[in-house]
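thought: user wants a sequence for this fold. calling inverse folding tool.
action: design(structure=
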């Protein structure tokens, strides 16, 4: 799906959600400024406030087995080393909260934050997203799916009533915010009252939990599920899909706001000059269709996610 088509569909969903619940979104953390109105933190104007580390630390959004993704990203990070002239270290984060805190504390310089975490990362950690994975034709995105296993007794969404439903983390768009809004608005199902929410921590954990029948149902990003099926971690016959949403933007890649501007430009160059052909990155993401990095802006591409957050009453509280 192209960005224009995805935006048209999703803005309709967000407008529908906005009629349900509204709540204020807190402004960007006071430590940052946004003089140009692009909704991300400006680089410091005083060079003494720039960071120019001898080692760039990179983290990919939390996954079930970080060691697998360290190998997947190895070729890309070698390319970033060549482009920036810096050593680059892969940081295997265990949770969205740990990833956010690492950037906020200055220990993480370049990262891929999942869809739902991007607003928190931007407003609380000074994250500046500039890239996203896309197919060769420029299309991109994933869908939120609510899944169960064969014979679970859950044949439709209404059957989730009285059951446990696995979410990933409160910051996740497809793993918590979008499905929570959907269940409440379309099916009248409220967490705690009508079903028991549990948090697995990661999409991988939720998917494996359903496949192994530990969770009766789960809300997940189907791009993660497709990659897990391609690796043989779970089998298609272990999963039954109950609901599939419209398309959302995928993981946003970027750098911390106070990275030395020349270095930040080199980091961007590394993303947009990486040769995907024959790479481990291409093999890992082939099942979900990604074949390149494309430029994005947080203000435009994450508009629908911010609207869903507003409808959910989510605040970007940095405490």
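)
observation: tool returned 319 residues.
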């Amino acid at each position: 799906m192209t960005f224009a088509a995805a935006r048209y569909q999703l803005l309709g969903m967000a407008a529908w959600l906005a009629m349900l619940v509204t709540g204020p979104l807190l402004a960007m953390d006071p430590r940052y400024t946004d003089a140009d109105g692009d909704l991300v933190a400006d680089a410091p104007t005083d060079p003494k406030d720039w960071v120019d580390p001898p080692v760039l630390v990179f983290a990919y959004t939390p996954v079930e087995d970080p060691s697998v993704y360290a190998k997947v990203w190895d070729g890309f990070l070698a390319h970033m080393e060549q482009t920036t002239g810096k050593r680059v270290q892969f940081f295997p984060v265990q949770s969205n909260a740990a990833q956010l805190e690492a950037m906020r504390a200055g220990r993480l310089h370049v990262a891929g934050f999942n869809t739902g975490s991007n607003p928190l990362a931007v407003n609380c950690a000074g994250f500046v997203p500039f890239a996203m994975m896309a197919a060769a034709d420029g299309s991109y995105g994933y869908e939120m799916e609510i899944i169960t296993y064969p014979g679970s007794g859950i044949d439709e969404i209404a059957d989730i009533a009285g059951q446990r439903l696995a979410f990933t983390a409160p910051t996740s768009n497809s793993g918590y915010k979008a499905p929570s809004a959907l269940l409440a608005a379309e099916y009248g199902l409220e967490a705690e009252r009508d079903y028991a929410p549990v948090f697995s921590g990661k999409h991988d954990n939720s998917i494996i939990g359903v496949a192994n029948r530990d969770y009766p149902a789960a809300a997940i990003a189907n791009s993660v599920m497709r990659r897990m099926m391609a690796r043989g971690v779970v089998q298609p016959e272990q999963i039954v899909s109950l609901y599939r949403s419209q398309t959302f933007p995928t993981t946003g890649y970027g750098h911390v706001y106070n990275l030395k501007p020349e270095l930040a430009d080199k980091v961007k160059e590394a993303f947009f000059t990486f040769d995907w052909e024959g790479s481990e990155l291409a093999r890992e993401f082939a099942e979900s269709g990604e074949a390149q990095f494309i430029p994005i802006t947080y203000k435009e591409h994450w508009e629908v996610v911010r609207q869903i957050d507003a409808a959910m009453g989510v605040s970007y509280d940095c405490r």
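thought: summarizing for user.
answer: Here is the designed sequence. The chain has two domains: 3-139+249-312, 142-248.
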